[in-house]
TrEMBL record, chains A, B, C, D:
Organism annotation: Chelatococcus composti
Protein name: AcrR family transcriptional regulator
Signal peptide: none
InterPro entries membership: Homeodomain-like_sf (IPR009057), HTH-type_TetR-like_transc_reg (IPR050109), HTH_TetR (IPR001647), Tet_transcr_reg_TetR-rel_C_sf (IPR036271), TetR_C (IPR011075)
Top-level taxon of origin: Bacteria
One GO MF term attached to the UniProt entry: DNA-binding transcription factor activity
Amino acid sequence: MSRPPHPPPGIAPNEATPDVVQDGNVPSPASAMGASGRRTSIGARRNPASAAAVIAAARSLLQEKGYAGFSIDEVARRAGAGKPTIYRWWPTKADLFIAVYQADKAATIAIPDTGSLARDLRTLVNALWAFWRTTPSGGAFRALIAEAQTNPASLAALRDRFVAQHMCRLQIVFDRAVERGEIAPDNVEALVELYFGFNWFRLLMNRIDDDPDHVARAVQMMVEGARR
Amino acid sequence: MSRPPHPPPGIAPNEATPDVVQDGNVPSPASAMGASGRRTSIGARRNPASAAAVIAAARSLLQEKGYAGFSIDEVARRAGAGKPTIYRWWPTKADLFIAVYQADKAATIAIPDTGSLARDLRTLVNALWAFWRTTPSGGAFRALIAEAQTNPASLAALRDRFVAQHMCRLQIVFDRAVERGEIAPDNVEALVELYFGFNWFRLLMNRIDDDPDHVARAVQMMVEGARR
Amino acid sequence: MSRPPHPPPGIAPNEATPDVVQDGNVPSPASAMGASGRRTSIGARRNPASAAAVIAAARSLLQEKGYAGFSIDEVARRAGAGKPTIYRWWPTKADLFIAVYQADKAATIAIPDTGSLARDLRTLVNALWAFWRTTPSGGAFRALIAEAQTNPASLAALRDRFVAQHMCRLQIVFDRAVERGEIAPDNVEALVELYFGFNWFRLLMNRIDDDPDHVARAVQMMVEGARR
Amino acid sequence: MSRPPHPPPGIAPNEATPDVVQDGNVPSPASAMGASGRRTSIGARRNPASAAAVIAAARSLLQEKGYAGFSIDEVARRAGAGKPTIYRWWPTKADLFIAVYQADKAATIAIPDTGSLARDLRTLVNALWAFWRTTPSGGAFRALIAEAQTNPASLAALRDRFVAQHMCRLQIVFDRAVERGEIAPDNVEALVELYFGFNWFRLLMNRIDDDPDHVARAVQMMVEGARR
DNA sequence: TCCTAAACGAGACGGTACGTCTCGTCTTAGG
DNA sequence: CCTAAGACGAGACGTACCGTCTCGTTTAGGA
């Protein structure tokens, strides 16, 4: 009688999406549909080709126009998808941004283990900035942060699904450093915030240019400060 | 022959506005206009009452609805002002946000001089967060950052008119610390970035709750790291 | 990929609209929408209820305020319609005026056949002026002519879609007169212009008052002049 | 205490203006002001240079852009005049259009006296159309008619100050024809309407191209019809 | 010689309409 | 029951123009 739940149970957008595009070679909209040029329903379940086409369109749009030129209408147009299809699976722009961001995660930053926290962090920062610069993910993340300022739900998504997850991945680096005695365990929490803040600040100011010396100095300061 | 520059020389929006509302008691729209209820031109020059009414309307709107519910239309409606009047003096939303932010600057954070960089920074952070929490300025600043992601002009305004200016004000604190030998001069630049990043991260995550211990620890880390 | 044509093929505004409202009793905006008070999409095709509501709103607005007080914004407001809906189907004000004019065509002037050109024309002029006086169509037509002075597209619409069409309907009257030998065939073209000019002049001067004797004299002159 | 009367007594716009520009060579805006490039008050009376500049600007604007692109703002801009100066002397757009029209009157159509009404009218129509085609007056008149549809005051101005005046000048032609026995006196009134209607229709449809044969036929019909 | 009056340019003001864009919802027709 | 398609109401966007107002300047003419 009423509208179906949104999203349908068991197909959480943030879980299903990676399955679609995780394979590394993100399908282009053209390749995602059959030869007819018209992609149609495959029955009462999600069409992976549609999801891929939407993600790919959002990716390219973010890369070309940035957050400013991004709109659901344009994504639907490029993807050859209906808007309800998009809203069904990514009820919020934030969800779509997250999906775009995670579509690049396959080629993502490996957690380094160089035996030195400073070296690890330098490696991470440089890899992260290069990732942001060379993929649509930088734009996606800027968009996600901006979007989070307009919508509490988006903020929650950013905080709980994204930052928290990223923090978990970082945790291993800091745990190793604690074990090596490089930093005090009580400082880890604040160190993480400094680390995030530094990266966000640069991203939001559009200053993620490659500047190894400057990065090295900032990292060195963080590590030194957390020593004891 | 052509249209005059926008804004006219000598009446830079970000400079003239504070004069209007800097006196601490921001006039309400109602009080900003005469008894007639209709505010009109005062000749071929800016009407301070209009400027004040627009700023006040933008302030209250930002406070009530946040960045999401903010629109120039609504500001014009509340201020009893015409939209061209707003665009004349604040060509960009960012300009308006900056004006709103700076309207609270009167009650702003005094640069402390406690003889210790850590104490100075703790004082500053706590004052800044309280400022963000208790005035519309927190919302204004979040809005400004978000807006800067949609518009290169806004980003330039944020970077060149705002962050740069704020950095200048901070410089004195760090200069004193350098003179006292607390930190190495070469570290100042990176330290400023860590400081900004930490505050921005908390603001954008809407976590500027009062947590003196945590703040103290982060500040301590920054200072320690910059020592040598 | 690109935006669809505007308007979509097969739904020419000036053809589809009459079907909606031709039934004589123009539905009011209220009756044009369901009980919910909110009119929404009926799928990927034109909603006749919306079209009817827009026409009705434009009619009443023209009747109340005339061409001066007419605006798309106000039409949208009264019709409870979105502006893009109006622009989608009536890209030009002229299109809307034509639609309003033709909405009254149901009660329109029957082509008379009295056996005498002078009697036919007298009947036509009196019926036309009464039509202009007693329906919003007089205002709509004045508006259309005025609009045509501001916009080449509107002028083309007036000339090609309207005057030409009206001339066709008149042709039959003159053809009969030619067959009866009342007028020379070579004079028909100029006679039509005199006839149109006479009516337009009176309408634009707002002097379509009922004055049968005066009309009779003018008609008589035209017919006499075209005799040989 | 209150605003001065508008316009000041004794300087009716439609009377004073011709005096300024009637001399045939309409001064350009540049020549209308002194060498300084800035035209200022010449005391508590009308500045003819300003009036001339405004008329000239309106003329050229109408010629370049037509009624569509005409605005008081643009006239003021081109004339280097203040908007209140314009509104002071031409309270209505219609007044300004009339002034522009009459600025060309110097080179206006001479009343012919060929001894034949048909020849007189042919001469008049051809001269009028040429006048409309080759000067800004055609545009001015179209604008005046269009403007009259938005404003009863403009309509009154068109009817009482303009059409009536023009009719007076024509009267002499018809009076001569009556004296010659070419037409019946009772037909003059209707004949004038046919004559006006024919010209207006062609002007408003932007079809005042030179077509002597067609004009001759229409004129012949009018004269024949008015014979008796 | 001063003073009052009025026109001048300039341009800001509150409005309002423009035509376009995006939003998120809704309904279809077809697989 | 999903899909592409696209219409829908809503309303913000930034611009143009409207007609009014006040400014400070300039000049003329009466006291």
